[in-house]
Specification:
198 residues; 7 strands; 28% helix
Length: 198
């Protein structure tokens, strides 16, 4: 059921690094991304799958991992992603304002992450990175712009959702057992009432 899958599809930042993800699965998830809606049907997003250990090792320090956990530099060896999918804008195909590609990116990556979660693989969308350094590391052609990096792997942590407390604090946090807690606003708080017809 879609509701259960959405509830299970949480951001994971610590992985079973040595458990490889099959290439056929990675391709299948990119295919789900490809099938999502696209503004003006431009289909300007492209994807680079990175699984080679040497390249993953060089990519990791270029990424920012968790803004609300300033003392946590990212996953330790053995808990690092088994794969990355780098989401690219092909500027040769883009139509209209660039922000339209970000709408496509949200749809595409949610499709991809839902497909991964259905197979027991979870990920983290990483938007904090050195675009120039990532571009150079991946030897990308000038027409490509790095929009997002998805870290993927089998989870080595538990993630739980809980309702935002009375103080309104939305920052995620780790408890003493390493469980990752994610406060979510209630449905009531998210709904805005329309005006009453006159």
């Amino acid at each position: 059921m879609i509701e259960e899958l959405v509830r299970r599809t949480r951001t994971v930042r610590r992985f079973v690094e040595q458990k490889a993800i099959e290439t056929t699965l990675l391709h299948a998830w990119v295919d789900l991304a490809r099938l999502g809606g696209s503004a003006r049907n431009a289909q300007s997003l492209k994807y680079m799958i990175v699984t080679a250990e040497a390249l993953r090792t060089r990519l990791l320090p270029l990424l920012g991992w968790a803004g609300y956990l300033p003392d946590w530099p990212g996953p330790d060896p053995g808990e690092r992603p088994a794969a990355y999918i780098v989401c690219l804008l092909d500027t040769a195909l883009a139509r209209g304002p660039e922000n339209e590609a970000h709408f496509d990116l949200g749809i595409a990556t949610q499709n991809l992450l839902l497909g991964a979660a259905a197979q027991g693989v979870f990920g983290c969308r990483i938007g904090a990175f050195s675009a120039e350094k990532v571009h150079r590391l991946l030897e990308l052609e000038p027409r490509f712009k790095v929009l997002l990096v998805l870290a993927l792997g089998y989870p080595a942590e538990t993630v739980v959702m809980e309702e935002v407390g009375p103080d309104g604090d939305i920052r995620y946090w780790h408890d003493e057992l390493g469980v990752h807690h994610v406060p979510k606003r209630s449905l009531t708080e998210m709904l805005v009432s329309p005006p009453v017809p006159q």
